[in-house]
Design a protein that fits this description.
Elements lengths: L10 H8 L4 H13 L8 H7 L5 H8 L3 E3 L2 E3 L1 H21 L4 H15 L15 H8 L6 H10 L2 H17 L9 H6 L7 E4 L8 E4 L1 H6 L1
Antiparallel strand pairs: 1-2, 3-4
Helix pairs in contact: 2-4, 5-6, 5-8
Length: 219
């Protein structure tokens, strides 16, 4: 990525993670934390580079505080702090493009207090899929749209892509929208990871079939 992310350093989280690390493990942790400034998701290759001088015990020690996620690794509090900054920057961009004063007020309450010092990245880190694309595709327009939009912005690019792949099959399984989860529940439960059960009224015997996770995302 061409520019570094800004993020809020949280001493309590840092000390919690590093208090039991050996000296070499902590150096690797610090380097991973810095790499997050360029790439939120740390690849396996990058992790191997940062840990190549560690013993197996030191690697095991480090992995107690590095989370395994889809496609790579992350220090959770650092990644979350970066995503918060991205959400704040994106919300300000949207406001410049014509959002209402009411929307700006809500954004300010949520983010300005702890992000106000960062002034150079307002145009950085645009999200891959806009909230309106989700809002219209999901087609159950219930809940606080402003809060839902901020939740959408805070997701990873991969999560947003997975959601948009999931929605058509979810709607096929629940054609009556009153039976679909409200968007807030959908986000909170990360329901796009759920197995989908589709009724097949024309079949005999067991009249349901399931779409497994891999089918759900990639077919």
């Amino acid at each position: 990525m061409s520019k570094d992310f800004a993020f809020l350093f949280k001493p309590g989280d840092y000390l919690r993670d590093t208090q039991c690390l050996s000296e070499k493990s902590q150096v690797a942790y610090d380097r991973i934390m810095c790499e997050h400034m360029r790439n939120i998701c740390i690849t396996k290759q990058q992790l191997n580079f940062f840990t190549k001088k560690l013993s197996e015990d030191e690697k095991t020690e480090l992995m107690q505080v590095v989370a395994v996620i889809n496609g790579g690794f992350e220090i959770e509090w650092v990644a979350e702090s970066i995503r918060e900054r991205m959400a704040y920057s994106e919300s300000r961009r949207l406001n410049r493009e014509g959002k209402t004063k009411k929307h700006m007020k809500h954004i300010s309450i949520s983010y300005v207090n702890h992000m106000e010092g960062d002034s150079n990245s307002d145009n950085e880190n645009k999200i891959n899929i806009g909230f309106e694309d989700f809002w219209n595709a999901y087609d159950k327009k219930r809940g606080d749209k402003i809060k839902l939009e901020l939740k959408w912005i805070s997701l990873t690019d991969q999560e947003r892509e997975n959601i948009m792949t999931y929605i058509p099959k979810y709607k096929q399984a629940t054609p009556d929208k009153k039976f679909r989860k409200d968007p807030q529940t959908f986000f909170n439960n990360k329901s796009w990871n759920d197995e989908i059960i589709i009724s097949n009224e024309n079949s005999s015997g067991d009249n349901k079939r399931s779409i497994k996770h891999t089918d759900k995302l990639w077919n």
